[in-house]
Automatic annotation (TrEMBL):
The keyword Nucleotidyltransferase does not apply. Belongs to the prephenate/arogenate dehydrogenase family. GO terms for molecular function: NAD+ binding; prephenate dehydrogenase (NAD+) activity; prephenate dehydrogenase (NADP+) activity. Its EC number is 1.3.1.12. Keywords: Amino-acid biosynthesis, Aromatic amino acid biosynthesis, NAD, Oxidoreductase, Tyrosine biosynthesis. It comes from Thermoactinomyces intermedius. This is Prephenate dehydrogenase.
Amino acid sequence: MPEKIAILGIGLIGGSLALGLKERTDAVVVGYDRSEKDLRYAMAIGAVDDWTTSLPRAVSDADMIVIALPVGQIKQMIETLAKLPLKPSCIVTDVGSTKSEIMEASRKLKEKGIVFIGGHPMAGSHQSGIQAARSLLFENAYYVLTPDPEASLWEVQKVSQLLYKATRAELVIMDAAHHDRIVGAISHLPHIIAAGLVNVVGNYNEENEWFHRLAAGGFRDLTRIGASHPVMWRDILLSNRKALLKLMDDWIAKMVEVRSAISDGEQEQIEAFFSRSRRLRQQLPDKKRRGILEPRYECHVDVPDQPGVIGKIATLLGNENINISNLEVMENREEIPGVLKIAFKKEKDYLAAISVLRREGLEVFSEDESWEESKV
């Protein structure tokens, strides 16, 4: 008999997981959400077999429950589930981007004899909602599981195998605190830094509008994540405050060290700072791997900024069936090669475009090459 899986929250993550389950498993998927409109849409696209706005009905006799809600709502949902008559063999998991606080809250389920296995699919999109859901959202991304230490191997394997079938993600087992420190360093802290830069420059711009006028290229790329959802990130940071406070202390100490080197004119120390950064950046794993932020494939083309250029390039690529995601004329090119930035969603289009444009005699700077070295 097919297992019943209840997805609590039919948004981007919950909807994508539901689609994967329907496409690649024989599970019966029931969707729960406060939005009847979103639930009807999920039903229309085949993401769920049934839907309801009644939580008790959604989880009744469920073999597995997936809490696909924002971090700020997961603990409350766990408390609510602990009060409901769940199936004794039911396993509950979540998709929250922080884990220690959620695992602590899951003790209420444990007291009721219900197994909780924390989860975090490390993939997403700049879009949100069930309308943006797709069954392969998590493919090749890491999907971290943080099981309760007392969970049986069979229970962990059951969740892992089901999620792998549904998502095609790379499942990883990790301690909750370890997860929070890592994700805090590679995602949460960068969001704070990006938002901090945007706010500081925004203050300067109130006195002189040229700060924003000249803010292009590197500044825009570096601060892209500074435009993230305020409420969502408020809840994430507060949920991961223990790990983040230590990480922020380390960051502040590093900035004090660099400030001191600049103040004292320590040339070797400043150069060593950037040399180590450059070396470590080049050692990062394949940047095309999907992660918390979707990969972007971009190249810059050196062309004259004149009428007809964009049309010429778009036609060249279109004739080769190469899909362009976005085109941007660089108004300020400090530290940016090429006047035209072209973005692609797929690596094959990105590589093909570079080949076609160079074949036509255009100078193309790819993100895999060091423009800094070409200037020397």
